[in-house]
Amino acid sequence: MKLKSKLAVVAGTLVLGATPALAIADQPADPGSNGHASKAKAYGKSCRGESKKHVKGEKGTAFSRCVTAKAKAAHAS
């Protein structure tokens, strides 16, 4: 193998090896939070006893209404 070919193979290997490391380094610490971790609340935790079954004629489920009410109350204060 010629020297230029060897250098091309080594350079290609280094570039391909470094790409995943650069992609990982560019991600935020908590990719799911989008910077709103301090605003996140677990309203569903206190509403877990409510039914998640939809009742015909009612808007949403009892669970979703509970979560929505708690979120609105928290933002009102």
What's the alpha carbon Rg, rounded to whole Å?
Answer: 26 Å
- Write down how many β-strands occur, each being a DSSP E stretch of 2 or more residues: 0
Shape: rod-shaped
Alpha-beta classification: mainly alpha
Uncertain runs are none
Number of domains: 1
* Content of β-strand: under 5%
Q: Element order, helices and strands? A: HHH
Give the rounded overall mean pLDDT.
77
**Helical fraction:** 40-55%
Q: Main β-sheet, in a few words?
A: none
Note the total helix count.
3
Measure the end-to-end span. Answer: 73 Å
Topology:
Elements: H1 3-25, H2 43-46, H3 62-76
Can you put this structure into words, describing what you see?
With 77 residues, the chain is mainly α. It has one domain (3-33, 42-76). It is 55% helix and 0% strand. The chain has three helices and no strands. It has helices at residues 3-25, 43-46, 62-76. The longest helix has 23 residues, at 3-25. The radius of gyration is 26 Å and the shape is rod-shaped.
Describe, in short, the structure shown.
The chain has three helices and no strands.
Features:
single chain; 77 residues; mainly alpha; 55% helix
